[in-house]
Amino acid sequence: MTDVTQQRSLRELVGPVGAAYQQRALPPGWVWALLSLTLLAACLAALPAIAATALLASAVVVHWPRRNQAQWMGWRVFGLAVLALAAWGPDVLALWFEHGLALVLMALAGTSVLAYVHQSRQMARQLQCAADAMDDGQLMALLPADAAQMARQWREGDDRHAPELAVVMHLAVMHAALAPRCQRRMLAG
Question: Cα–Cα 20 to 30 A to 67, which of 6, 77, 102, 136?
Fold first, then answer.
């Protein structure tokens, strides 16, 4: 049996949980660049077109993690409909109303993006702090029996299952860090 002081720490397998969460929660750089170029191009058009583009860009950012699922964009659809009515509807609506509405919707879109990015960064920080606070005993307790056996073997120098074990460790730590938050949500609503 190997001396305990020579065993590796399971914390080496956990990795950057917070950064991985943020990578999944926020769009990659190329999407941000594409959205920026689209907004820049929209700036050459009228104010309602800029607002509509800002609403669509905010929907892309906020709904990025669930992009493969059908999503209801909520208030953004309503905002687009009101913008369309103001821009192409009857002349009853004054031009100042159209521009004021566009400015309000752009402010809402920008605020929603900033709030979502801030919330994602906060969550990433919380996940990383929770992961950093766990010791080997706590990490081992998170694992199912098969993974715990692989973890013991890895600690003793067996690297055969290291990639799989790293994924399991990562997911187990994320689950443990998010579980209290999910329980509070279930109790609240």
Answer: 102
Q: Which of 53, 40, 163 is nearest to 102 (CA)?
A: 53
Please provide residue 170's backbone torsions phi and psi, each rounded to the nearest 5 degrees. Answer: -60, -50
Q: What's the DSSP call for residue 8?
A: P
Token representation of residue 155: 């600690």
The answer on pLDDT for 142 being more than 80 is yes
Q: How far apart are CA 48 and CA 82, in angstroms?
A: 10
Whole-Å CA distances, 1 to 6, 24, 75, 155, 157: 11, 40, 62, 11, 11
pLDDT class for 7, splitting at 50, 70, 90? confident
The answer to whether the pTM exceeds 0.85 is no
- CA–CA separation, 126 and 175 (whole Å): 12
Distance between CA 133 and CA 11 in Å, rounded?
Answer: 10
Angle subtended at Cα 47 by Cα 43 and Cα 48, rounded to the nearest 5 degrees: 120
Cα torsion angle, 58, 56, 74, 108, sign? positive
Q: Characterize 74-110 residue by residue with b for buried, 16 or more Cβ atoms within 10 angstroms of its Cβ, and e for exposed.
A: eebeebbebbeebbeeeeeeeeeebeebbeebbebbe
d(CA 57, CA 110): 9
